[in-house]
Amino acid sequence: MKKQMITMMAAMFLATLTVTADHAQNAGQIALNIPFDFSISGKILPAGEYYVRRKIEGPRVALQISARNKTQSVYLPQTHLLQSTDIQSVSKLLFNRYGDQFFSFGGLVRGTECGRAIN
Questions:
Q1: In the prediction, which pLDDT does 5 show?
Q2: Rounded to two decimals, what is the model's pTM?
Q3: Which residues make Cβ contacts (< 8 Å) with residue 13, sequence separation at least 6?
Q4: DSSP annotation string for 15-51
Q5: pLDDT one-digit tens code per residue, 59-72
Q6: What is the CA angle 6-105-44, rounded to 5?
Q7: Rg (alpha carbons) of the chain, rounded to whole number
Q8: What's the CA gap between 48 and 37, in Å, rounded?
Q9: Which 3 state secondary structure label does DSSP give 5?
Q10: If we measure between CA atoms, which residue out of 46, 54, 96, 95 comes closest to residue 71?
């Protein structure tokens, strides 16, 4: 129970990580700065600046996370709807923390009550 509470508190804290929409290049793209190394889809990415892009592939919605300097990229074809109770004022990338490691599990989109979770 204590571990779950700590994990939830860490996720809520990290959920406040502010990201900004990068409308100049692509309306479906979010630019963000992640201040710690993190794991996503089995791949460890270093702290730094990233773009998150949404790709619609027929009935599926995929995500791609790319380093701003184009040295790292992760394609996430398996995502599902993530519902929030409130309309988001900023876009957010969500993480779980286990010990000193961070694992991305999804994101929420500014102006909506929903986002995508990673399978």
A1: 46
A2: 0.63
A3: none
A4: HT---EE-TTT-TTEEEEEE-S-EEETTEEE-SEEEE
A5: 777 788 889 887 78
A6: 95
A7: 14
A8: 8
A9: helix
A10: 46
Q: Positive or negative, the Cα torsion across 30, 51, 18, 8? A: positive
The tokens of 79 are what? 């995502």
Q: How far apart are CA 21 and CA 32, in angstroms?
A: 8
Q: Helix (H, G, I), strand (E, B), or coil: what is residue 10?
A: helix
3-state helix, strand, coil split of the chain in percent (to 5) is: 10, 50, 35
pLDDT band at 2 (very low <50, low <70, confident <90, very high): low
Q: What does the pLDDT look like over 5-39, one tens digit per residue? A: 445 444 444 444 434 333 333 456 888 888 999 88
Q: Which of 7, 29, 9 is nearest to 19 (CA)?
A: 29
Take residue 106 and report the two structure tokens written for it: 């999804």
